[in-house]
Amino acid sequence: xxxxxLEAQLQDQRREHEEEMEALKNQVDLMxxxxxxxxxxxxxxxxLSPEVQxxxxxxxxxxRLTNENLDLKELLEKLEKNEKKLKKQLKIYxxxxxxxxxxxxxxxxxxxxxxxxxxxAVQRKExxxxxxxxxxxxxxxxxxxxxxx
Length: 149
Hints:
The protein is mostly helical.
């Protein structure tokens, strides 16, 4: 059984590794395609007049900044959504804490009575056990202390 478990874990790790490698290969392929596009665009701009090169460069920069801006807006929306969710959770937890604190202050006498009843129940259960007790010599002081308390 242990060998099968280890084999299964090894297969899982191998599968995860292969999936990760495939994802990285895809990412490298996409980056190579992007690099080729950029090189072609660069070569095309070198053939253009200086004025057109500047205009093309500005258009490229505007496009890049627009895309970056959209990404940042999307990130901001996600963060705002997460913030709202966390605020709701905080309100819920604060309410639970307040309820808990209120229950702690309102019924200390009832709680003490309940704790006494619990102790009595535990003591009765312990009294039902009869027989011999096996223990290590070094555990004797701890055992005696627990018996006394």
